[in-house]
């Protein structure tokens, strides 16, 4: 019987090649796109979850209450990890982790820059990174310990085993002994590094880390298997009280735990509490994937119910000869499943072809994991879901037909009072509601990304080169700067401790006359050299930039408008200010400029003088001469700093990188939204073709009676366009609400204009009209003699 069902299904597909092709293509494209998105979501979801004891690993977070505001981040005191192990029996392991740094590793004639961190001795106990040489206990225990990745070991020593116990020189100055070699970190690792140095070295280099009032590094811990996280959270809340002497009536810090498995996806905090993160992107694309699959399924259901009349006699004959409703349902569900299987095969083939381009777009290394059981579960689940949902209504509708009426030819094509007709119209409306949601969403995401890309940050990020100050540059900085200023194409040079697009340094150690001594008020801070405002192109509202002509500038400050407002100075230039017990004066008032993500408002900023090569060197080039200037910079760099590779970046590229995930999601949304609209139009094309075919005699009569081509096109298109208009009315308020909520994650954002919805509506109508018109015009131009000669 199953064999006969298969034969009947195959005959039906071959008899109706156009409709079968539309169904297969629609389902295949919908499945392929949904599977691609699911692969991307699976990869995002896997980050931070691949460790042996991932469910017991936590990040220690700070919730800082200061100046009437609440801010949360993962900066913690450098001595916190060891103290937590002593004070909490529930903590099995704890380790600090520094910020990432680039260092030159040298051995004999080989030199290469790699990125790494300082980490506590428990690091490899917490994170189950496979060790190819050495043990977790000794990997980071000694002050001179160095753990390197397989990539670094093979680069310098050939094999991991050969690297153990050998020395590598750091920054052409100090030698470190390799005490462990770990496997190259997978993309799913929470942290990415090529080497790790011991925590004792970090504390020795940065003595301020020993103070409870200072924060900067991260703290990670693993709880014992039987421990209750809520107990630790309760103990952590006021852990710093009594240790941090800055606690006062307007300032305190609560510590809390965030699971490692959630840290990547849930990284944004608003007013100190969790407020989404990359999980918002995951949810957005999951919705897009669902929409794509639903639109494809709706196409199938629409076309199958529309062609119900063509199979009514078949159903009638089957019922007369004894076929029961269950067997008919099985027949039609089997056809749907067969069609879905064909679509699935085509979808997998499509994914194989487009996956390299998709990986390049998303900066991932996704593969079809055929060897993983979960992938087959997803495939079978999608197959069953799509096949059953697509075939359910047609099967139930056709199997319920009255055999007497069908054999008498009484089953006319359903009109407006028919349940099937209403159902089909509802599906078309639903399709275009989803399509318009995607059009509006994509447009607003694009607008916001363009707003970010073109936002006036308060400084000019174009033609601004950033170099790391290392090697011989610190002691030769003044020579380097003066030689650069003589070079054609270079406007100005300065130095800055932080990157201009990311300054997370904060301090409460600010004093001024009239300040409440009990109030701890947080300010962002950084250090910069002479010619800072000129090089950054930050507007000086009042006062002057740091200058070598004023020796007192070593204790003076530049502040932004937000800082002046918070301090309360109306005319701040010349006013006293003390930072970290170093009294000085404000010499310049800078216009507010963005030094962090646009997700955050501009915070009060204080800049102290760092006349030496502190952190980064910023070089402003003349517009149109950057290439020539860069070549000159490289020649001078290699002359002064020959043992270090010339590495640089552009500030505008660093700025783009901050919004990399948003840009990727924006591109994916645009691509998949276009695909969703194409699939919806594919189904609409099929419905229009079927309607024109079904009403061919009516069209012939109208033409004989004098109807024009335009009136017939309007007649055939009118019903569909009414449905699209209904979809526009439904989708407009829904899309406004959804996208307005999405924009709340940005402190600086666009205003949603009415024209977005008008554009989406006109676009939806235009696409629908274009799709329908092809079949409508074809039917209107057909010779009426051919359609009426059988009457």
Per-chain topology:
Layout: H1 2-15, H2 17-46, E1 57-66, E2 69-73, H3 80-87, E3 91-97, E4 101-107, E5 110-119, H4 123-126, E6 131-133, E7 145-149, H5 150-157, H6 160-163, E8 167-170, E9 174-182, E10 195-198, H7 199-205, E11 218-223, H8 229-237, E12 251-259, H9 260-263, E13 269-270, E14 273-274, H10 278-306, H11 312-320, H12 325-362, H13 373-399, H14 403-407, H15 419-454, E15 464-468, H16 477-485, E16 490-496, E17 506-507, E18 510-511, E19 523-528, H17 532-536, E20 540-543, E21 557-560, H18 561-567, E22 576-579, E23 582-590, E24 605-609, E25 616-621, H19 626-640, E26 648-650, H20 651-658, H21 660-694, H22 696-704, H23 709-743, H24 754-781, H25 784-788
Helix pairs in contact: 1-2, 1-12, 2-10, 2-12, 2-21, 10-13, 10-15, 10-21, 12-13, 15-21, 15-23, 15-24, 21-24, 23-24
Written description of the protein model:
Residues 287-402, 671-780 form the ABC3 transporter permease C-terminal domain. This is Duplicated orphan permease. InterPro entries: ABC3_permease_C, MacB_PCD, Macrolide_Exporter_MacB. The chain crosses the membrane at residues 21-41, 284-304, 336-355, 375-401, 422-446, 671-692, 704-732, 752-772. The chain is of the alpha+beta class. The chain folds into four domains: 1-47 and 264-412, no CATH class; 75-227, no CATH class; 430-454 and 658-791, no CATH class; 471-643, no CATH class. Helices cover 49% and strands 18% of the residues. It has 25 helices and 26 strands. Strand 8 (167-170) and strand 9 form a beta hairpin. The longest helix is centred in the middle third of the chain and has 38 residues, at 325-362. The radius of gyration is 34 Å and the shape is elongated.
